[in-house]
Each structure stands twice: as C-alpha cells, then as structure tokens.
Write a structure and sequence with these properties.
By secondary structure, the chain is an alpha/beta fold. The chain contains four helices and four strands. The chain has a single domain, classed as 3-Layer(aba) Sandwich (Rossmann fold), CATH 3.40.50.2300. It is globular. Keywords: Arsenical resistance. InterPro entries: Ptyr_pPase, Ptyr_pPase_sf.
C-alpha cells in the first residue's frame, strides 16, 4: 500500500510547515510521506526550526524552503491531504491549492525569530501530527478524514479546542 501523502503549506515555508513535514516524515515513516511548500517561500529554512528538530532527534537532511508550484504541475506527486498551517488570527493570508485531496487548516502563530517560540510551535505540531498518526487514514472515508483533520486543527498549544 502506498503511503498517505501530506503537503503542509504556509506562506514562507521556513518554520511551521517545515516542522510539520519533518515531524510527520520521522514519526510516520513508511505510512506517511510528508512535504512542505509556501505560496511565497523565503528561500531558506529558519535556523531555529533546524535547531528544534535536531534537539528532539528529527533528521533535517533535505529540508528546504520551496514554492508550492512544484506540487501543482505535471510530474507533481499525487497528494492525499493538504494542510495549511498559517495563522488566520494574525491576518496572515493562507494559500489555497486546488485538487482532488482532503484539505484542512491547522493554523498556528508564526514562531518568528524566538527560539523558545519554536519549542512551543513544535510542541503543537507534535501533538497534531501524533493525532494524525492515530487516525486509521487507510480505511476512513474522505468525509470522516476531513472531519477528523478539522478537529485536530482546532486544538491549540494550551490543549484546548478552539473554533
């Protein structure tokens, strides 16, 4: 059986989407294949993201800030799930990608340039990725998967659900 392919999208593709990609690839090896991209990639992965991943033993080889264009054209890997991780609450514009995949939003604040903020951001990513790993995605209907992913996206860093 092919792995479930997940694309995490943000604006700059330097922090939240990178943390999500690396974490899901590490914890879901073989069952999931994760990618990340940005609508306006800044061209470099935030060094604090790399530090945070290395600190918890997650490989960082091959991580790069890249455009979502590589996931929309011919030869792009087929995607099963696309998750936006930008922060609507901060009036950050979330990218929109069209295709035959389940879409969900797991917004969270940009950790920006503070190392401690990356620990907090990664803790939320880890919580949400673990919830995804606990789903029986291989046997779920699209509607059930969408509903479960949307629910995961409502849980914030305080462990509470928010609409």
């Amino acid at each position: 059986m092919n792995p479930c392919r997940v694309l995490f999208i943000c604006t700059g593709n330097s922090a939240r989407s990178i943390l999500s990609e690396a974490t899901l690839n590490h914890l879901g090896k073989g069952r999931f294949e994760a990618f990340s991209a940005g609508s306006r990639p800044n061209g470099r992965v935030n060094p604090y993201a790399i530090e945070e991943l290395k600190a918890v033993g997650i490989p960082t080889d091959g991580l790069s800030s890249k455009s979502w264009d590589r996931f929309t054209g011919e030869g792009a890997p087929p995607l099963d799930i696309v998750i936006t991780v930008c922060d609507n609450a901060a009036n950050e514009t979330c990218p929109v990608l069209f295709g035959d995949f389940v879409k969900a939003h797991w917004g969270q604040p940009d950790p920006a340039a503070a190392q401690e903020a990356f620990r907090v951001a990664h803790a939320l990513v880890l919580y949400r990725v673990t919830a995804l790993l606990n789903l029986p995605v291989e046997t779920m209907s699209r509607d059930a998967l969408k509903q479960a992913l949307d629910h995961i996206g409502t849980i914030t860093d305080d462990g509470e659900e928010h609409a």
